[in-house]
Amino acid sequence: xxxxxxxxxxxxxxxxxxxxxxxxxxxxxxxxxxxxxxxxxxxxxxxxxxxxxxxxxxxxxxxxxxxxxxxxxxxxxxxxxxxxxxxxxxxxxxxxxxxxxxxxxxxxxxxxxxxxxxxxxxxxxxxxxxxxxxxxxxxxxxxxxxxxxxxxxxxxxxxxxxxxxxxxxxxxxxxxxxxxxxxxxxxxxxxxxxxxxxxxxxxxxxxxxxxxxxxxxxxxxxxxxxxxxxxxxxx
Length: 235
Hints:
The protein is of the alpha/beta class. It has 9 helices and 7 strands. Strands 3-2-1-4-5-6-7 form a 7-stranded parallel sheet, with helices on both faces. Helix 1 (11-20) crosses helix 9 (202-212) and helix 3 (52-64) runs parallel beside helix 4. The relative contact order is 0.15. The model has no long low-confidence stretch (mean pLDDT 94).
């Protein structure tokens, strides 16, 4: 398998890339070239997903490397009331969280169809399932991934291609901790709202991806799977 992980320089993406290494040729992309080099994967390409020509180059890279497992992990988080939303922030988060995954799927699908096999995994968020006050842009884009997953899962099912979204809750990463700092709640208050009273480990997400790209999961497509320590169930 030829696997591409976006946003692989740190956090969830870095762990996913490391865990996928034993399954095939892993290619990674992010904005930090130094971090990508240190991962020592099959190959890498530096890309800011919000920049048109860089995204286009990444699309060409997908075609060249014949990517048949695409993991759309990269994402941006903005915490602000809706009335404070600026057009540049709106354009940026839409570009990274939704437009880029759509474009990358567009570039990967022709080879997947030709090969009769493909796995597309989108990393969403529990905020896209439940909604998150003061994170409306983030919630909207992650909800968009769920719609994209349903539609493309249906469209591509006959070609041996599956498309699924994983919706993590609070994850034990730098981004997760930073989002707590930006919120109106303390870490103790957030943990108290999680039924299992813990963060999700990035390795749990990587483990679910391993299953979803396996032959055992070939019948799972178009699905939105919550991996959130019970957060989506209620408090």
